[in-house]
Write a structure and sequence with these properties.
Elements (H helix, E strand, L loop, with lengths): L1 H13 L7 E8 L10 E4 L5 E3 L5 E6 L5 E6 L6 E5 L7 E4 L10 E2 L7 E2 L8 E3 L1 H6 L15 E7 L2 E6 L10 E5 L2 E2 L20 E8 L3 H4 L6 E7 L7 E11 L9 E14 L3 E13 L18 E4 L5 E5 L18 E2 L9 E3 L13 E3 L3 E2 H5 L4 E14 L5 E16 L3 E17 L3 E11 L1 E4 H12 L2 H14 L4 H8 L9 H11 L17 E3 L3 E10 L1 H4 L3 E12 L17 E12 L2 E4 L2 E14 L5 E12 L2 E12 L3 H5 L9 E2 L3 H7 L7 E2 H9 L20 E14 L3 E13 L5 E6 L15 E6 L6 E14 L5 E14 L19 E2 L3 H4 L11 E9 L6 E10 L2 E5 L4 E5 L2 E12 L4 E8 L18 E11 L2
Parallel strand pairs: 1-7, 13-16, 39-44
Antiparallel strand pairs: 1-4, 2-3, 2-5, 5-6, 8-9, 10-15, 11-12, 13-14, 15-16, 17-18, 17-54, 18-19, 19-26, 20-21, 22-25, 23-24, 26-27, 27-28, 28-29, 28-30, 29-32, 30-31, 32-33, 33-34, 34-36, 35-36, 36-37, 37-38, 38-41, 40-43, 41-42, 42-45, 43-44, 45-46, 46-47, 46-48, 48-49, 49-52, 50-51, 52-53, ...
Helix pairs in contact: 5-8, 6-7
Amino acid sequence: MRQVSIILFFILWGTGFVTAQTNIAGTVTDARKQPLAGVTVTVSGTTTGTITNEKGRFELKTSRDLPLTLQVSFVGYATQSVPVRGNNFRNVTVELTEQAILADEVIVSASRVEESIAKAAVTVEKLGPRQFASSPAATPFDALQNVKGVDLLTQSLTFRSVNVRGFGANNNNRFVQLTDYMDNRSPGLGFGFGTVAGISDLDVESIELIPGASSALYGPDALQGLMLTTSKNPFTYQGLSAQLKLGANNFGKDDFGPKPYLDVAVRYAKQIGTRFAYKVNFQRLTGTDFIADDYSDRSTNARPGFFTTDASRGGVATGIGYVPNNDPSTNFQYDGVNIYGDDINVPGGSFRFPANYSRPELQNQLVTRTGYREIDVLGNEGKVFSNRANVALHYKLTNTIEASLGWYYGNGNFIRTAGFREYFPNYNRHQFKAEVRGENFFVRAYTTQQKAEGWNIGQTAVAINNAWKPINQWASEFGQAYIENKTTVEQARQTANRGRFEPGSPEFNRIRDAVSGTYNTDFVPGLTNVRGTRFRDNSQLWHYEGMYNFSKLLRVADLLVGGSYRRYVLESGGTAFPRKPDGSEYTIDEYGGYAQLSKTFPVVAGLTFKPTVALRYDKNQYLKGGFTPRASGVISYGVHNLRGSWQSAFRNPSPGQLFAIPGTGQGGEVGGTVLAYTGAGLIANPGYLVNETTPFQANPNTAAAPQPFVIDPAQYTTEKIKTWEVGYKTVVGSRLYLDAYYFGSRYSDFIAAQSVFQLLTPGAGVNALLTPSNYRTLQVNFNNTNEIFVRGAGIGIEYGLKNGYTLSGNYAYQIGLITLRDARGNVRNDRAGNPVVKRKMSNPEVAQLGRNFFISPENRYNISLSNPRLTDRLGATITYRWTDRTWVEQGTTQGDVWLPAWSSLDAQVSYKVPEIKSTVKVGGTNVLNQYYAQGYGLARIGALYYVSITFDELMR
């Protein structure tokens, strides 16, 4: 990468062309001849552009010969292509027409070339200045929550995971996020960080999102879709921009809140001469997170008798039978959702009295100890921060070829949810990119350098409890108080808790800091046989890619050819991933190449057909390579566009899913390779599936004993999907926009971690599973043999009303079906003896047989009424969002539950002050403050109110 940067540096400064410059000037007005400020004017086919001033005037210099064409665009108006000739280049006049619906947006993500969004062969969503300006969301990234079919799962105030088309994940590694074509995901942890390490809000030009398989052009991991965030080019967007945003959240809590937050951003860009331009960005946010404060008793299939069953049908599940008791003073097994150290299925969190205990009242009784709230364990009062910075140098080698160097920086703290909740107190990431781009090619190289250290919140709580008093001693004192003193559960807990480390006390803080500050490969100094809970991921990514468009050479068809190579360098010191036998860290090499061929055929007058075929091959050094084809076609007749596509995609396992072993990093995760299985001892000492073990634990005398869970890790492979889609898009009379789709997908070799109990003493026998201290819980990654089918549909509508009003809405529907198979490929039966073939994964008779992790609401919709021009200066938007209830299956310390349906009312009012090039915006999301959770165990989201003032392109 360093060599590439040096070479590009000399190209930037050593290449010079002396050409004549044409100075173009003009004025842009609306239909009433009123000047329009802030209109973007660009020379077609180049990045040369400018913005009109407060009088609607613009000037720009170009080395292109006349005649040429200008592209003139502005939020709320139809884009115009304006010819410039020798007789008007100093006095170009443009009159823009108001347009409530944008019909002619240009995208690049669907086919890697510029094309009309209406004629894209796959479903594509685009957010640009119009959507950002009218959205009530506090950031451009958060505006994705209004896109049809998109689920944003909020992990932290600054960290939201994008999910589409099922299998909602808190850390979605089946969805690729690109920032200026750089992978936004963590090299080691394998998920995108959203705005923790994105680009400054002021520098976001557009966000394009493809929901659905995208591997044919973008390679591994674009299994469920792709998002491309593009920053502003300094040749086009110049001057000083600044934004100050003040807000508050956590309203309506007696013991916590409301809490303020501050968000400040600055951007400066300048063109020097005709060929060089640069930009500098910085943004800082400080505030208080939404707090994970669900203290209800945890709903999880680890509970004995979790499902209601029909004994007459072999014990098949008919629903959830467990009734939570949220009162720890009366509940032996109280396990708060966001309370840790009291977990029923984690050693140290619970104790089962033996069946031969001296008093029958406690024989075989499971008792959980008193845990600690998440916010108490964190000890930071929920404070969050985020810093983002960017510097970019751009140089025009010719009129159509531009070179650039860029540095992107992200820093912040956040909480993420995997099998456990984990806190990252100070995440740091640098990305460096060098790129040369022309009309028909690009070459780029970039690297991601990450420093990430985090610690497991739940395991830290267990360690604090055990440092004070081991679980066996605590249980002995509990039992003695309960039996001998004839006390209640509450009184017995109080007796056993005497002298307990109280949150915030010096001793509590000392133990927490010692445990969370010690790597999980080491024992904590001063504590007996207690390992630390800290892990690090300082992994790196090196990526090189290029593409050439042969269309101008072939003329008869459009042909793209491209390829890429990347290397992951893992660096965790053994805390997140195991080391090689020689003690060095693992590296992962991947390479791939693709080609795409397309051509537009005229059929009859006004009717065209454009077929496209693409094929890509990719190879990961630890897995077999594979092809991902795509075939698509678009039939266009006037404003009507009918599309159809079939494609395949795949996902390489993340580093954790390849190599992770217990005691190194992510709780009890075990990778799918032979190396990981051996490291976890699963080959010699296989575990037992939790869902098969819990009935035996509840009724050891009558239930069948579980059998060991045995699979062959040598067969571990990539996760695959085949999907088809049909869609229709049209714009009628510049007032009605409609986009609809229907799709079907089939997953194979699906990778999903299953919960297993592994005995700590090999060969101890299944009766040892009756005592939690005899086993540990692991999350084992493997390719299951199940067939998974996802079906879905969606529709988005915008209608331009009179006087500038736009009424819009969208609806998305999807379901997940499964055919369950055993390790030998035979179809499994439910407990009533019926084959499980293409049945809903949320059905209790299916969920009873094991977790499938589909986690997706069947229905969701948005409705919005917007008018950016209530007056010349005033605009407003109101949006209602609703999401159906969701069946959640998640993690070791999370659970299994029907997450309730939720809704949110969002609104914003904006006021323009053109004299100082500024906009004042007052807005809020969930303004009625009806708290809801987007995932089990996640922070519950309440109202977020803000006021911002944005100054745009001063000192231009």
